[in-house]
Design a protein that fits this description.
alpha+beta; Hypothetical protein af1432; 5-stranded antiparallel β-sheet; HD_GYP_dom; Metal-dependent phosphohydrolase; hydrolase
Length: about 350
């Protein structure tokens, strides 16, 4: 599958979107995707796609820092395997991605947003060409931060109005970086410009509101916020995926469009894949796949005994396929480090 990010006119039919409301949006030729490959089978390819994306993002940032032109080829090489893996099995990709978050926030955030954009586009039934554009936009939307002083990006306190303006200038910087490249895909440009716009008009740079914000910008605004919440920063710890979704839901029809938030929640599930959770048995597990019929009962991998000591051999449990009298429930979501447990340390040891 080849996506041409240089295109200004779509090379394949795209969803026809109205500007009225998401609930009134019309989709032509939407695609119904289904996981074609089991999580266990796709996981090695997801690992490879992440390795490749990490290498390409490293090179992209090195090129920009060195004053070289952004390479459209590197962007395409990063997003094609990533999107292919998400389309085969979104659960496999997010299980692996959750265990493999890069130490550098900018890099891991770029890859996380790119993958989430692909998954959200898949859920919305967009054509593969559109999903590739969404993934490219997610990968590139923060490249302008390479032109912002690192001390401002990492500052733990409140910034002055002048400093806030400097941080916000990363949007214009990203557009300038991309404008010097061969990338002219309008979806990508819309994402770069509008992912900080907000439903109530409080965002930037243009103060757009409601459906004046391109649908791609509305999608990536939620994704950008969600991925930042679940990522540790120098000035605050990460929160769980479940709690991030709850906090975003509380902003419906203020910061973000209610219908878009609801679609994003359905896309990821109540306990998104990769979530660390505590079961009613006292055991700790990681969510490995969603059950589309019963969203509160995903498939999990049990990592510990009830006393929180690691198991020698992990076991898979489908919470939907249990005897009703002995059903095990998820009682709460966790973050890495709760009970001294980090799923990445256990899985990748």
């Amino acid at each position: 599958m080849y996506v041409d990010l240089r295109r200004q006119v779509p090379i394949a039919p795209r969803p026809a979107l109205t500007r009225t409301s998401l609930s009134g949006t019309r989709f032509k030729d939407t695609v119904q995707y289904a996981d074609r490959i089991p999580v266990e089978e796709e996981a090695p390819r997801a690992h490879a796609a992440l390795d490749n994306a990490g290498e390409m993002v490293d090179r992209i940032y090195e090129d920009i820092a060195s004053g070289r032109e952004l390479s459209v080829e590197r962007v395409e090489q990063a997003v094609r395997p990533l999107v292919a893996s998400v389309l085969r099995s979104a659960d496999a990709f997010f299980l692996v991605e959750g265990l493999r978050r890069h130490d550098n926030y900018s890099y891991s955030h770029s890859i996380g947003c790119s993958a989430l954009a692909a998954a959200f586009g898949r859920h919305m039934g967009f054509a593969e060409e559109t999903i590739l554009s969404l993934a490219a936009g997610g990968l590139l939307m923060d490249v302008g931060k390479t032109r912002v002083p690192e001390n401002l990006l990492r500052y733990p306190g409140s910034l002055s109005p002048a400093e806030v303006d400097v941080v916000r200038s990363h949007v214009a910087a990203a557009l300038a970086i991309v404008s010097e490249s061969d990338i002219t895909d309008q979806d990508v440009l819309d994402i770069l410009r509008s992912h900080h716009e907000r439903h109530d008009g409080s965002g930037y740079p243009d103060g757009l509101a409601g459906n004046m914000i391109p649908i791609t910008g509305r999608m990536l605004g939620i994704i950008d916020t969600y991925d930042a919440m679940i990522s540790p920063r120098p000035y605050r710890p990460a929160i769980s995926r479940h709690h991030a979704l709850r906090q975003i839901y509380a902003t419906r029809n203020t910061l973000f469009q209610a219908e878009m938030i609801e679609r994003f929640q359905v896309c990821l599930g109540v306990y998104p894949t990769g979530s660390l959770v505590e079961l009613s048995t006292g055991e700790v597990a990681v969510v490995m796949a969603q059950n589309q019929v019963r969203r509160l009962r995903p498939k999990v991998v049990v990592l510990t005994r009830p006393n929180k000591q690691p198991l020698e051999d992990f076991r898979q449990v489908d919470l939907m396929l249990q005897d009703q009298g002995a059903a095990v429930d998820i009682v709460r979501s966790l973050v890495a480090g709760d009970y001294g447990i980090d799923a990445a340390d256990l899985f990748l040891k």
